[in-house]
Design a protein that fits this description.
Number of helices: 4
Low-confidence stretches: none
Oligomer: single chain
Helix content: over 70%
Mean pLDDT: 88
Order of helices and strands: HHHH
Largest sheet: none
Radius of gyration: 23 Å
Number of strands: 0
Structural class: mainly alpha
Distance between the termini: 58 Å
């Protein structure tokens, strides 16, 4: 704990030179691009879920399509995926706007908030990635068990 406090007090005087500020400014442009792209992707997921829900409802109402519940399930999955991706994209957008403000005004507080949002983005994506890998491993085991019981 004492070592961490010494490191923290030594880094209070850390400054960013022009080259570092230029890198941050360039990084900000890319993170803004990916944040906008992320929001557009979320919008397409919501639209896709909406249209699949409509097709599912129309097909079920007229009886022309069998198994329309599958489109309803896919619609719900798309909405869930869109909901999961809102937070990391929002963190990325906040990082970008706070970095821009910090670089333009040399505000240390905005710089700290920007890096806090970047940390939150990567933490969220890391937890999401670990969760998805865990689901894949679980699905493989389930498929192996179901497949093995089909032979016996």
């Amino acid at each position: 704990m004492e070592n961490r406090q010494n490191l923290q007090s030594e880094n209070e005087n850390l400054t960013l030179n022009a080259e570092s500020l230029n890198y941050l400014s360039e990084t900000r442009k890319w993170t803004m691009f990916f944040a906008i792209l992320g929001f557009v992707g979320i919008g397409f997921m919501v639209l896709g879920a909406f249209f699949m829900g409509i097709v599912s409802s129309i097909g079920g109402a007229f009886g022309g399509m069998q198994e329309t519940w599958v489109l309803g399930v896919i619609s719900i999955v798309y909405l869930a995926m869109a909901g999961l991706y809102v937070f990391p994209v929002l963190y990325l957008m906040r990082f970008s706007t706070k970095i821009k403000s910090a670089v333009e005004t040399a505000d240390q507080n905005n710089l700290a908030i920007a890096f806090q949002n970047l940390k939150s983005h990567f933490k969220y994506m890391g937890i999401l990635t670990i969760s998805i890998i865990g689901l894949y491993i679980l699905a493989i085991f389930v498929f192996l068990i179901v497949g093995a019981t089909a032979f016996f």
